[in-house]
Structures are given as C-alpha cells and as structure tokens.
Known about the structure:
Mean pLDDT: 90
Helix content: 25-40%
Oligomer: single chain
Strand order of the largest sheet: 1-2-6-4-3-7
Shape: elongated
Largest sheet: 6 strands, antiparallel, barrel
Low-confidence stretches: 1-19
Amino acid sequence: MAGILGKVFRKNQSTDSGSVSGFFSLGVTAIPKTFDTDELVVEGYVTGTIKRGMVVNISNFGDDHRKTYMASVIDIEVKQKQVHKASNCLVSVRISNPGELQIKPATLLFTDHITKSEQKESYLLALEEYYILKKKLLLREEEFNRMSITDLAETIRIYKEKHSSGNATSDKILNQFNSALAKKILQAEELYIVSNHDTGEPHMFSKLVNQYNDVYDCTQPKILLFTEAYLKEYESKYKRPVYDIIKFDKNDSADEVEDILGMYFYLNGVSGIHVLYDNVSLEAEQLVPKPDYSKIPENKVPIMNPELVKWMLLVGQLEKSTKDDKDIYLTLYKKYLHRALLKTKFLVPIKSGSPAPVISDNGNVQLTNELKANLATSIGKYEKESLRIYTDWKRLLTEYNSDWSAFVQPLSALIHEFDCAVNVTLYTASSYYVTEELYDEIINEIINE
C-alpha cells in the first residue's frame, strides 16, 4: 500500500522521532474515541515496532470483501505517557481518520511487510482480548450486529479452546453467540462450502468415536461452510481431486440461503454445519426448521430419504479418501446404509402414458411384462437386467425429463426381479448398486445382529 500515496503521506507527517521505517501489526481492543472529524484514537497490543509518522494500512480482517485504507500515526501513548515509538506492548494511538472504514474491535492497523499470518495473529489476539477477556462475551445486540461471520466463528473457537468451563453459564453464553452466528449466516450475501468432487454434493465431515474396546461408531455428518475472508486459506487446504469449493450468492430471494441449507439438511441428511472449524458448529434446526408434513395426506408428502442418502454420500466420498481408519469408516457407513435401504421407499421411473401400475394386496406393484417394458432398465454389472431407482425427485429429474413419471416402491418389491441401481446420475460415486445376493446378505446381517 505504500507506493505514491505512501510517499505523499510521509512528506506531510512529522518525523521528529527519526526514521519511520519499520513494521508492526495491531488489533484494536477498544472502541475508538473521536477528537474531531480528522482524527481517531485506538487502543491495542502492538506486535513489532510502531513509530510516530508511520503510514499504516487499516482493514477489518474478518470482513468479506474487506477494503484497506491508509492513515498516519500522529501520536503514541504507553501507560498514558507520550512516546515516539513502542514495541510489543499495549498502546494508545492517535491516527488520521481513514474515513469510510467502520473501525470496530479487531480492526487491524499494519504496515506493508506484515504477512497475512502475522495479520491474522493480531486479529485473533484482539478478538480474544475484547470479546472474551474484556466483555466476557456479554454483548448487546448492536455489538453482535457489528461482528462478521468470521468474527463470531473465531471468537467461539477461541473461547471453546481456551476459556470455556463447560458449565451451564458457559453454555448459555455460547448459545447467544450461536444464535447470532445463525442469524448472520441466513442473512449472508454469499457463502462458500467445501464440496466433494466425486459425489457432486457438499463434502460430509464425520468422525470416529471409540466407544469401548475398539468398538466404533461415528458422529452424524456435517458440512463445512466458510467465508470470503478466508477463501484463499481454504482453497489451498481443500483441493482437487478430492474437493471443490462452491460459492452460492443470495440473488433475488431473501430465503435463498435457508432454501439451500434446507436441501442439504433434509434431502442429503446433513445434521448441521461447521463454520470455519469443526468445533464451531450449528445443528440443522438452529438454521432451518424441519419440514412439518403432519397435516398433509400421506400420498402428498414429498418423497425424501435423507437417512439413506447420507450414508450413500459418505460411502461415495471414501473412494479417493486418504483418511486414517478408512476400512473402519467404510464398515460403519455400509452398516447404516444397508439398514436404511430396507426401510426406504424409492421412486421408480416409468415412461409417461404407460398403463398405471397395478398394486397387489400387500402394497407392492405387480411387475408385468407390459410394465417392465416401460421402466428405466439396462444391462447391469453382472449381465442381469438392472432397474434405476431414486431416493427423491431432485436426483430423478437430473436424469429424466417430462417424458417420464414415477411410482413408489420398496426395494423388496423389486430386487427379486431386477438388480437395483440407486441414484444413478453423472456422479457415479453417489450411487449404489444392489444385487439380489447383496440384498439377502443384508437381511442375514440384520437378523444376526
């Protein structure tokens, strides 16, 4: 930021302290006081050396699309005593007013040669000092409104890692921050999500839990959401061929973020979101209420099978995964997948205009030759005719146009006549192929549990 503007600023500033070269970063830890429209006083811990006459950059590090402004250091105080320079201590600094920038807790002052990691360190120190140590996380609504998604998530993370006592009071305070974070996310103009390249859906993060004697279970999966402020950092961390970064913008609809997250929660079976970090999480219903179909006739309720889709996507992610304990994950995921398969009612594509399927007394369709001729069949993996079936309309409609409709059936009504290919789309990793032999194995597994 120095350049020509920097030279102009330097020519107009006092250099009675000698050279103003050097570098520092400072995160604001006190709300600035305004002496007049041209000057501000800010307080914070300076890392490096700040000198009177320096030209500095000022930016809100945690804001999306942050802009950087320039100001000059007019005076420095340490313990209420004016000094020409200060190093690695708490200072009060009078600067020229940068104008349009809204200075807030954790706003950064920094020189050109400070790295991004050094800027981030000062930003995090300021968040901790102001919101946790000074304010004890007890904020007014206007203070929450000033914070960005990144500010909130980082403050929650720092508190959990370094200060939380885990008692009821601590939980109550965190609930207020979580509510503010949920509100900010639903109002966001844009958000970024880590997607899985193989499944074409948001990557699902689940961890192993060692219950006892190497008997494992896994946590319910969440997806990872992050902000533009950390885009470069996350792009370097989540790369192809395993990951993609997807961005969605709020366009004309005020409910767009809620609609997108609701689809992930209630079609894909995602239990919630991680915001920047896995210890900063919101449950699905903290963001989007679960759909209530209690007053809708059963035949009008949308076909959704999130419990099955969840485990199918988790299995699909593992193909190129390098994670430790991959075999344990796969065994667990398939166990839950197989249980869900037996409970699921699938959409079976049928050509529009075909005779209506005849349903027998047990509720299963009668697979006549006429009906089979109008189904979405092909030669499967083992030379046996396979039938494409789908968990929901979203996935069916990616493959079939208005020339097709569908009827609903469980796997048990179809598997003895066809192999069943579940959710065949462009993303083959998100599908699952079931033979009659596998079906029988699943039945035996469940019987013998």
